[in-house]
Amino acid sequence: MVRKTHLRLVETPQPVNGGLRIAFASSDQQSVDQHFGTAIGFVIYELSESAAQQVEICRFAASAQDGDHGKLIDRML
């Protein structure tokens, strides 16, 4: 089981109308610089044609690089 910290922004602008939520694997919440299977965290944005806003940050506890590809599903849930 993967231990994680999940942060949601408490005060956000109105949801993006018709928006799509997209997760980016990032080590610094600024750049897409990691692989999903080994990322230390995800930054989640809500996107539409006219707007984008960060809505969540998900950070994971350090885990061994053990080749267990099934842990990716646990991270996403």
Structural class: mainly beta
Strand order of the largest sheet: 1-4-3-2
The SSE order reads EEEEH
- Give the biggest beta sheet: 4 strands, antiparallel
Indicate the low-confidence ranges by residue numbers.
none
Number of strands: 4
Q: How would you briefly describe this protein structure?
A:
The protein has 77 residues and is mainly β. It is 8% helix and 35% strand.
Write the topology of this structure.
Elements: E1 4-8, E2 20-25, E3 41-47, E4 52-60, H1 71-76
Antiparallel strand pairs: 1-4, 2-3, 3-4
Q: What does it look like?
A:
The protein has 77 residues and is mainly beta. The protein has one domain (4-76). The protein contains one helix and four strands, in the order E-E-E-E-H. The protein has one helix at residues 71-76; strands at 4-8, 20-25, 41-47, 52-60. A four-stranded antiparallel sheet has the order 1-4-3-2, with no helix packed on it. The longest helix is centred in the last third of the chain and has 6 residues, at 71-76. The protein is globular and about 35 Å long. The model has no long low-confidence stretch (mean pLDDT 74).
List keywords for this structure.
mainly beta, four-stranded antiparallel beta sheet, globular
